[in-house]
Each structure stands twice: as C-alpha cells, then as structure tokens.
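Priority: medium. Attachment 1 of 2:
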C-alpha cells in the first residue's frame, strides 16, 4: 500500500528496494523557505542496519502489510534468539541486532511483510 511520506510514523514498516524497514523515528520538517520534507530513520529488519532517508512530504512510500503471530521464546545462543510458534511448532531464529533490548520481559514476535515474505521483527509485549 502506497502512502505519502508525511503520514509515516514510528513503528510503521515500510518496504524500500525490496527490503523491509521498521521506522525508528519520523519527523516532518517545514523550513521557512523551500519544500517541506519528512526525515525518517529506520532499521532494516533482516540485519539491523540503521539508515536515514529524507523524502518530500508528498512522495509516495510503500507501507508493508503486517501479519501478527505469537511466538514463545525458547533459548539464546551465539546466532541469536530462537522462538517457536505454539500453534504450528515452527521455529524462527532472530538475530540479537533485530531484537535489541526487548529480551528483558515478555516478547511478541511479529512476522512482517507480504504473503510470500518471511522476515521477522521483535517487539515487547504491551
């Protein structure tokens, strides 16, 4: 789904260059002279790389569809954290860079993307 850049908010997931990104911060800047822009900092879901992009507020951005699923934390090893879907018993490995500090306390793992995409990101439970 394409949306204008000024409507992007923290926590949204956008697709750029075939990769999924979680928005870390989004700020609309209206200079006294010139075109208003949206400054968006985001983290790539697949490897945790952080990037910053600047769009005109009227530019179109691809907002990803999110499918939520609950996963149970199993264990941690050198490769990252391992989770299991309690309904299907499928296991997923997520790198430490993607999860960050969310491991303290409960964790909800969200499968992100389109129907054919299998990228994952982690967030704290509300």
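Attachment 2 of 2:
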């Amino acid at each position: 789904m394409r949306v204008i850049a000024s409507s992007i908010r923290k926590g949204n997931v956008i697709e750029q260059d075939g990769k999924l990104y979680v928005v870390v911060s989004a700020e609309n800047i209206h200079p006294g002279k010139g075109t208003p822009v949206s400054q968006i900092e985001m983290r790539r879901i697949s490897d945790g790389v952080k990037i910053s992009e600047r769009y005109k507020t009227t530019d179109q951005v691809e907002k990803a569809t999110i499918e939520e699923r609950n996963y149970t934390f199993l264990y941690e090893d050198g490769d990252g954290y391992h989770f299991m879907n309690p309904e299907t018993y499928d296991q997923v490995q997520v790198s430490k860079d993607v999860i960050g500090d969310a491991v303290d306390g409960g964790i909800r793992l969200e499968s992100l993307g389109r129907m054919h995409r299998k990228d994952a990101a982690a967030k704290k439970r509300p």
